[in-house]
Amino acid sequence: MKHESHSPEDVDVFASQFAALGSEHRLSVLRTLVRAGPEGLSIGALGERCGITGSTLTHHMKILAAAGLVTQEKQGRSIICVAAEMDVMRALSDYLLSECCADCPTEKDADHG
Q: Which Pfam families does its entry note (predicted)?
């Protein structure tokens, strides 16, 4: 992968996103929403699938939403939770992988990235 230059603002966003993922519960929530696709899940269904209830789930959703990794939208009497657009997820993973093996002495060593 080639080296990409990121602005300080971009790095701040990535840092806040990685910090938000620093909990096994939040990782579970995000992965569950990614699996659900663009339709998302109701907050109740999300809690059931993740095994997280009430105020604990609300707390984790607020952190993920503040980092731009999920959205919540009221639809009638339900709150629908959705993972961020795939370009947001891709940018986060690309930020890490763009430097993979950049200092390896040979191209063969860098091939696993």
A: HTH_20
pLDDT value of residue 58: 96
Of 24, 64, 27, 29, the C-alpha closest to 45 is 29
Q: Calculate the alpha carbon distances from 49 to 8, 36, 57, 90, 93 in Å.
A: 37, 11, 11, 24, 25
| Cross-sheet strand order for the sheet of 70-75 | 41-42, 78-83, 70-75
- Correct CATH for 8-97 of 1.10.10.10, 3.40.50.10860, 3.40.190.10, 3.30.870.10: 1.10.10.10
pLDDT at 1: 46
- Give the span between the Cα atoms of 30 and 6, in whole angstroms: 24
**pTM of this prediction?**
0.84
